[in-house]
Amino acid sequence: MGILYLVRHGQASLGAADYDQLSPRGQAQALRLGEYWRAQGQTFDAVITGTLRRHRQTLAGIAQGLQTRTPEVLQLPGLNEYDSHALIAAVHPQPLGPPDSPERYHQHFRLLCAALAQWMAGTISPPGMPRWSAFSAGVHAALTHVRQQHAGQNVLLVSSGGPISTAVGQVLGTQAQVTIALNMRIRNSAVTELSVSPKRLMLQTFNTLPHLAAPEYAHWVTHA
């Protein structure tokens, strides 16, 4: 039986003009994950990512740490993240300041959770974004591809918190609020494992950071 390793990208640039860029910490997280896997003798038969820059940068860091050539990458737009700014604007049209304080940080994610719930229920359709049904279908298509094409193989998939929590929600059959809660808890560079057979995917681990388990990496754990 194969394993699908779903990896959330390293820390991006929350509050910056361009979020879609790994921070120095995010680059270090990705490199460390690759180094950990190299020490474990981990190899991959297939590699899949979204098309965002932070996905590509995370994969590059992992590959650098692995110090081995990875298979040709399949990029799937269906693994790209939702637009958090468009979602928040749909429920809070007034401009928000950057999340540069604990109060603003918590406000950002409270609004995001409320907007996600309304988007998933079909009550809002933020401009420039797909409907929830189309977003969810993109994730389902990626999982179906893995199940049909890579059963019995080890597959690395680098994406974002939204698609990864959606994938877990589809495998477990969770309600929307549970999927949102899973989304909010996925840490940067965290690994979620699904076993892969031709018939089904099964959850093995969720949101783990084995590469950051040593005490010297405790301050490397981030969520955004």
In short:
The protein folds into two domains: 2-81 and 130-209, Rossmann fold, CATH 3.40.50.1240; 83-128, no CATH class. It is 44% helix and 15% strand. The protein has helices at 24-40, 53-66, 84-91, 102-121, 132-149, 161-172, 176-185; strands spanning 2-8, 46-49, 73-75, 154-159, 191-196, 201-208.
The number of distinct β-strands equals: 6
CATH fold naming of the largest domain: Rossmann fold
Structural class of the helices, strands and pairings?
alpha/beta
How large, in whole angstroms, is the Cα Rg?
Answer: 17 Å
Distance between the ends: 32 Å
Average residue pLDDT: 95
- Count of all domains: 2
User: What's the order of the H and E elements?
Assistant: EHEHEHHHEHHEE
Count up the helices.
7
β-sheet strand percentage = 15-25%
Largest sheet: 6 strands, mixed
